[in-house]
From TrEMBL:
BP GO annotations: monocarboxylic acid metabolic process
InterPro entries (UniProt xref): 3-OHbutyrate_DH, NAD(P)-bd_dom_sf, Sc_DH/Rdtase_CS, SDR, SDR_fam
Name used for this protein in its record: 3-hydroxybutyrate dehydrogenase
Pfam families referenced in this protein's UniProt entry, alphabetically: adh_short_C2
One MF term in the entry's GO annotations: 3-hydroxybutyrate dehydrogenase activity
Signal peptide: none
Regions that span the bilayer: none
Length: 264
């Protein structure tokens, strides 16, 4: 029997209709939190995930289609969460996109979108959710970042810039609320085994003339010394810990979960 340490609390998880975000939302629901999902995808599939959370864990689960490019949508999502479920106790900023290109060829609209979704949306969720957290005297803000918040890779200028920004935003907000019962941290995974990553393997196999195992080891996991993917469950478990009372002394930090990538 799982100890429901977050019984009755409210967790808003952006980018949670699949992959890491969905895994995080489900683990908080498993531990008793009502959850709000957000993200893109097939409406029927999203509804299936939402309904499954309610059925599996006996909590309330809502879906909000807020466009993370639009500050007004983000603010409305936070307000509607507060009105429909209650003040947000746990905010997980997970929404993100990627685009790869040499900087001189990088499309300006792609740069703008990556900065907006991967970094600026975090600012908007945090600034809107903080007032209620301050009123209640408790809050957990967890930004799902990346190893690229600490190191760089070529051709990912927008993504690396955004994730470095997330690390700075995390530190700054943590200092501002350090005496108010609110912690702010970031999780920085390396390559995580998600359906999105898995779907890229066949094309890479064909393009490079490699086997599946060669693609995993020599392409995707080239930077990770363990040569093992981080799992969604591992990221979710770390988020769960950071939201717990046991982690109240951890704030303003970016925690690496990258198989040794950033140790090099």
């Amino acid at each position: 029997m799982v100890a429901r340490q977050h019984e009755g609390r409210t967790a808003l998880v952006t980018g949670s209709t699949s992959g890491i975000g969905l895994g995080v939302a489900r683990i908080f629901a498993e531990h008793g939190a009502n959850v709000v999902l957000n993200g893109l995808g097939n409406p029927d599939e999203i509804e299936t995930h939402r309904a499954a959370i309610e059925k599996d864990f006996g909590v309330r689960a809502l879906y909000d289609s807020a466009n993370m490019l639009k500050p007004e949508d983000i603010a409305a999502m936070v307000r509607q969460t507060e009105e429909n479920i209650g003040p947000i106790d746990i905010l997980v900023n997970n929404a993100g996109i990627q685009f790869v290109s040499p900087i001189e060829e990088f499309p300006v609209d792609k740069w703008d979108a990556i900065i907006a979704i991967n970094l600026t949306s975090n600012f908007h969720t945090i600034r809107t959710a903080l007032p209620k957290m301050k009123q209640t005297g408790r809050g957990r803000i967890i930004n799902i970042s990346s190893a690229h918040s600490l190191v760089a890779s070529p051709f990912k200028s927008a993504y690396v810039a955004a994730k470095h920004g997330v690390a700075g935003l995390t530190k700054t907000v943590a200092l501002e609320v350090a005496e108010q019962g609110i912690t702010v941290n970031a999780i920085a995974p390396g390559y995580v085994w998600t359906p999105l990553v898995e779907s890229q393997i066949p094309d890479t196999m064909a393009a490079r003339g490699m086997t599946e195992e060669e693609v995993k080891r020599d392409v995707l996991l080239a930077a990770q010394p363990t040569k093992e993917f981080v799992t969604i469950e591992q990221v979710a478990q770390l988020a769960l810990y950071l939201a717990s009372d046991a982690a109240s002394a951890i704030t303003g930090t970016t925690i690496s979960m990258d198989g040794g990538w950033t140790a090099k």
